[in-house]
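Researcher: We're teaching a course module on how sequence relates to structure. For the next exercise, students receive a sequence and then see the predicted structure as tokens, so they can try to spot secondary structure elements on their own. Here is the exercise chain.
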Amino acid sequence: MADERTRYFRSLARLRRSARRWTVLAGGLGGATAVLTPYAGVGLPDAAWAGAAGSAVVLAAWRWVDLRALRARPAPPPPDPAQAAARSRARLVAAVERLPAGPGVLAEVRRVRARVALRGTSASEPWARLDRAALTLDGMRHRLTGLAEPAAQEAGAADRSLRELAHRVASVERALRLAPPDARAPLAEAHRVLTEQLESGVAAYERLVVAAAGYVAEDARPDAPHPAASRLTEAADLLHGVATALSELRTVGDPLRAPSR
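Model: And here is the predicted structure for the students to work with:
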């Protein structure tokens, strides 16, 4: 979407072109009326020419008035470069999201960017573990229905909370590196507590993913063999029977290959 300054200059150029077109048309129709009317006399065609010429003159005047009024308004200031870059990124993200694989690509880009932002901090390793567990759970989410659906919703809320906690741990750790010696003790204690919370939270999330995998495995494991395996076994037995029957018929039809009595 264009900014206010761009729209202003586009409107200015559009009004200028329109005013020029109507001025040229008014001049042409007025000249034709002035030349043709004395030769043909005043009649209905002359009234049509005169009406068209008058309308063109009025429209041209209106366009010039609108153009003068728009010129009198000050042009909007140029947009802030940061805001322009943000709008460009938003347009790019919207365009990518409309593609079939767009949401997955954007999710991977955000994941890589967050991992790079946490690189070099103690939150990097728990974040990587949380990423692996979240990807594993996403692959099973469509199977976590029924009694397992509340657990899947709780896992989504826990994932967002743990990621926010990881960013907090990284922020405190960076501040700890810059803190003077007399202010490091409380920051170090806060960093230790936050890190322990992150570690325990990621471990609990991993246990949840393991439990979800067990639920999916038990839910999909029937007592009897899988129907596809049974059908494939029956088809294989049928093909073996047909092949044996054809072999016997070929042997009976060939006297040289028939067994001697």
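Model: If you want an answer key for the exercise: The chain has a mean pLDDT of 79. The chain has two domains: 4-72, 103-220.
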